[in-house]
Design goal:
The protein has 138 residues and is α+β, with helices and mostly antiparallel strands. It has one domain. The protein is built from two helices and seven strands, in the order ββββααβββ. A seven-stranded mixed β-sheet has the order 1-3-4-2-7-6-5. α1 runs antiparallel to α2.
């Protein structure tokens, strides 16, 4: 039996793929309402409602709630990275090589390394993949 944790009401967080025996899932991709899942560990990110700024982008005129179902572009990645920097989430950036595989509330990210300000430690070697997720806008 799979252990599944649904993150629909969780704030901004990072799923680090890891053989934990726990599957994490979230409702994603705006009004398309996809349900991707991945085995790993979930790290909540203290982002002072940073996910609201990201959600506002996906609800705005560019996507109008469609959830970026065809993938993200560099402008989207720049906005997400800016929110992470403004919230002092150090060492985490969008994975620019996986933008086509990303969509609203399920963004491939890269943990660049650890620092005194990093919310995660001990998951090296780095860089390491992760999934940045937050409450879907629909």
């Amino acid at each position: 039996m799979n252990r599944v944790i649904r993150l629909c009401d969780a704030d901004l967080g990072l799923i680090i793929p890891y053989p934990s025996g726990v599957i994490y899932s979230n409702q994603t991709c705006g009004n398309i309402c996809m349900q991707p899942e991945i085995e790993g560990v979930f790290v909540p990110l203290d982002a002072e409602d940073g996910w609201l700024a990201v959600t506002a982008h996906f609800e705005g005129p560019k996507y109008m709630g469609s959830g970026a179902m065809l993938g993200l572009d560099h402008e989207d990645a720049d906005i997400i990275d800016r929110v992470l920097r403004e919230r002092r989430i150090v060492g985490l950036v969008t994975d620019r090589t996986r933008l086509a595989d990303s969509h609203e509330a399920w963004v491939h990210a890269v943990i660049e390394g650890e620092s005194d300000w990093s919310p995660f430690t001990g998951f090296g070697p780095y860089p390491r993949a992760g999934i940045l997720t937050w409450p879907n806008s629909d």
